[in-house]
């Protein structure tokens, strides 16, 4: 049984080049991927790269000051974090300050503008029926819906986001026709509110059944120019959920649409879940699926049943966020299954953006931007510089210690540190665009701490090898006999470090997670480097004369290590026999 074991060991010892080739191929692949992706440096957090800091102040409805409480503030923080994470913004910090402020820090170099737009979008999400719509700023265009399509089944709603306004014979005739159509639509009120708040009376609901109400909305609608930023901001300002209003939205062609919308029938809290899905079976491409709560399902079924009886654009409902129409799909039949699917000319980005708005659009409170500040990275750069200097000093001391104490073995340790650094750098650079990892100051500290962990693994192995040499063994058997015991110690040590990093990552938030993540990553890389680089490289160098013969500068000189030759059994000399003559 001993012979096969020896053969297996000899086979393993004779192929250390395989391990070295594997790790070198991995480094080359990671480096190639880093340059191919265009992300040759790790993404930096707000403390290193600077960014935008937004202060949001909670505002309650009149008579509902008790709504500003810790529970609602924490819920708002979670929703804002999901909004930002849904956009792929990394290292964004969302936290409360005091009893009614929320601070949002968005790093530079991310899609911070879009994140600011959505985080600052603090109004609730509403589903409103469309009464009238047309392309804003185009006097010669007939009222044309910005979304068209059909619905099939009781749980699928299809919409095509496109606006194709058709021409007309004369601007004056078109304008007169539009005005008459809008007036007729307002008086007809094709979508009376189904909500409890709007069913009491027309005046209370704000439904434009009266001449005064319809005239006011018609005037607002006629004067509204959605191509003007200030006009868009003021459109429908102060309108309540149970009131009809005017609003603006941008269609897929980039044109601004203006709308007259009826009272809100469904709000954002009625949406249980929304996500972007790529449909391969139906060939619809990117779609947005929605699931409603029990109460929302009833409301949505009722309003879609009424809308399905109308013609365009009054068979459409507008998804309104902060009085901005983000989508306006049409309905063909009542959707009572508790779910719906919005399809059209979506890209992955636009479908994900709409899904984020539907999922996280309803905040328990209203917020206003109290301040928006640009954060410079000057302080972070100074701290980073100080940290890098400290890391360089520590690394230099480690290298000096290795050179003095381990001599030739220090070459293996230094090369292993360089391989570990290359793996860490390339992986961090690739993690930025893939999972949104951003390097902050605590993460840099974690990388510096990892230098000691990696060096400790080398020292454990080297000392095991030297112990075998001290016992009188030659270097090649000493390298192989020392490996099992050193491997066990290294794995236990790294497991403890990784477990501590994992626990720290789970129980902490914010920047401390950056430290834990980096520490855990470098600990795993330490195991990879020791197994695939340090051990095979020492096996190869152990076959050279410089190390194998125990050169004084190799760090493995038996005389300097105090090695003793193996004990051999010898016969004790017998005492001489004295003779009488002697």
Structure description:
The protein is α+β, with helices and mostly antiparallel strands and 582 residues long. The chain is 50% helix and 16% strand. It contains 18 helices and 17 strands. The protein is elongated. The two termini are 59 Å apart. Mean pLDDT is 75; it is low at 1-12, 139-181 and 190-209.
- Output the radius of gyration: 36 Å
The helix-and-strand class reads: alpha+beta
What's the total count of β strands? 17
**Could you name the ranges where pLDDT drops below 50 across 5 or more consecutive residues?**
1-12, 139-181, 190-209
Mean pLDDT score, rounded? 75
State the end-to-end distance: 59 Å
Main sheet overview = 5 strands, mixed, barrel
Total helical elements: 18
Task: Record the strand order, biggest sheet.
Answer: 4-10-9-15-14
Features:
alpha+beta; disordered N terminus
What is the secondary structure topology, with strand pairs?
Layout: H1 2-13, H2 16-37, H3 46-49, E1 51-59, H4 70-86, E2 93-97, E3 101-107, H5 112-119, E4 125-135, E5 147-148, E6 151-152, E7 156-157, E8 160-161, H6 171-188, H7 202-205, H8 211-223, H9 229-234, E9 245-250, E10 256-261, E11 266-267, E12 271-279, E13 285-292, H10 294-307, E14 317-321, E15 324-327, E16 339-343, H11 348-360, E17 366-375, H12 378-406, H13 409-435, H14 441-470, H15 475-507, H16 511-541, H17 545-548, H18 558-561
């Amino acid at each position: 049984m001993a012979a096969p074991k020896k053969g297996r060991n000899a086979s393993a010892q004779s192929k250390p080049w395989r391990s070295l080739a594997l790790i070198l191929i991995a480094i080359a692949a990671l480096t190639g991927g880093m340059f191919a992706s265009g992300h040759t440096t790790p993404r930096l957090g707000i403390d290193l790269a600077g960014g935008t800091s937004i202060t949001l102040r909670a505002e309650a409805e009149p008579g509902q000051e008790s709504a500003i409480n810790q529970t609602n503030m924490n819920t708002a923080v979670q929703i804002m974090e999901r909004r930002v994470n849904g956009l792929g913004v990394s290292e964004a910090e969302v936290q409360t300050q005091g009893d009614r402020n929320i601070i949002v820090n968005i790093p530079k170099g991310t899609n911070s503008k879009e994140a600011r737009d959505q985080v600052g979008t603090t109004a609730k999400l509403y589903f409103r029926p469309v009464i009238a719509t047309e392309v804003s700023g185009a006097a010669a265009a007939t009222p044309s819906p910005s979304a068209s399509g059909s619905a099939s089944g009781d749980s699928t709603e299809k919409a095509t986001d496109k606006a194709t306004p058709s021409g007309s014979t004369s601007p004056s005739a078109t304008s007169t026709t539009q005005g008459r159509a809008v007036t007729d639509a307002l008086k007809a009120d094709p979508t009376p509110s189904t909500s409890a708040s709007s069913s009491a009376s027309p005046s209370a609901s704000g439904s434009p059944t009266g001449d005064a109400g319809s005239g006011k909305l018609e005037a607002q609608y006629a004067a509204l120019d959605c191509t003007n930023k200030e006009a868009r901001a003021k459109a429908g300002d102060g309108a309540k959920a149970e009131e009809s209003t005017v609003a603006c939205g941008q269609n897929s062609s980039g044109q601004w649409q203006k709308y007259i919308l009826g009272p809100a029938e469904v709000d954002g809290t009625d949406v249980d879940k929304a996500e972007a899905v790529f449909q391969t079976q139906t060939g619809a491409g990117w779609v947005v699926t929605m699931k409603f709560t029990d109460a929302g399902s009833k409301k949505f079924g009722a309003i879609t049943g009424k809308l399905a009886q109308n013609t365009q654009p009054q068979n459409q409902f507008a998804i309104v966020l902060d009085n901005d129409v983000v989508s306006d799909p049409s309905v063909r039949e009542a959707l009572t299954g508790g779910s719906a699917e919005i399809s059209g000319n979506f890209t992955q980005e636009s479908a994900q953006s709409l899904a984020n708005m539907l999922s996280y659009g309803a905040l328990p409170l209203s917020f206003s931007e109290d301040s928006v500040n640009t954060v410079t990275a000057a302080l972070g750069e100074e701290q980073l510089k100080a940290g890098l200097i400290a890391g360089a000093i520590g690394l230099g001391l480690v290298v000096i210690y290795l050179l003095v104490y381990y001599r030739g073995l220090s070459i293996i340790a230094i090369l292993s540190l360089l391989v570990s650094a290359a793996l860490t750098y390339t992986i961090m650079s690739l993690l930025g665009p893939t999972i949104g990892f951003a390097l902050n100051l605590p993460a840099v500290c974690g990388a510096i701490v990892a230098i000691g962990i990696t060096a400790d693994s080398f020292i454990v192995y080297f000392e095991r090898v030297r112990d075998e040499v001290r016992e009188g063994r030659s270097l090649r058997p000493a390298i192989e006999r020392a490996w099992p015991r050193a491997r066990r110690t290294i794995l236990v040590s790294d497991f403890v470090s990784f477990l501590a990093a994992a626990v720290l990552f789970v129980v902490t938030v914010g920047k401390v997670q950056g430290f834990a993540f980096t520490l855990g990553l470098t600990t795993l890389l330490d195991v990879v480097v020791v197994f695939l680089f340090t051990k095979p490289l020492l096996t190869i160098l152990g076959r050279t004369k410089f190390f194998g013969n125990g050169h004084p500068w190799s760090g493995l000189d038996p005389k300097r290590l105090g090695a003793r030759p193996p004990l051999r059994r010898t016969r004790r000399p017998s005492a001489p026999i004295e003779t009488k003559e002697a």
